[in-house]
Amino acid sequence: MYRVIFPEIIKLGLEHLENCFALDQKALNGLWSKRQWEKELKDPKRICIGLLGSSKLLGIGTGWLVIDELQITAIAVDPKHRNKGLAKKILHGLIDEAESKGATHASLEVASDNIAGKTLYQSFGFKTTGLRKGYYINGSDALLQSLTFK
What we know:
This protein is an alpha+beta fold. The chain is 30% helix and 35% strand. The radius of gyration is 15 Å and the shape is globular. It starts with 7 loop residues before the first strand and ends with a strand.
């Protein structure tokens, strides 16, 4: 029988370090080291949220507040729970938290070959504002994207 999971957004802290690192390994192929995750979770200028369902971390979203701009650094969903709208919920959570702290716009980089990521950001109204050729380790380009809130 299929069980419905109603995930909730939570603020992540150091107590979530191991879970964030494990999810990074599964969903982002080890984008950050454990030390980088620790720095991310400790820094008060960072927004780190998780999506918790059935007591399990299903997704993560992180960003850095620089004056009035949210610089989104990572969004990831456990591969077993993709294509359920969870990344949208995470992105909404990041934007809502950033707006509550005075942010008026957001920026991010997405790989030019990341179709799911580009589709997600386009659905929120992000626009491509630049390009970094060969930015990623696999040689793909990074699209610079931005969004002004309301």
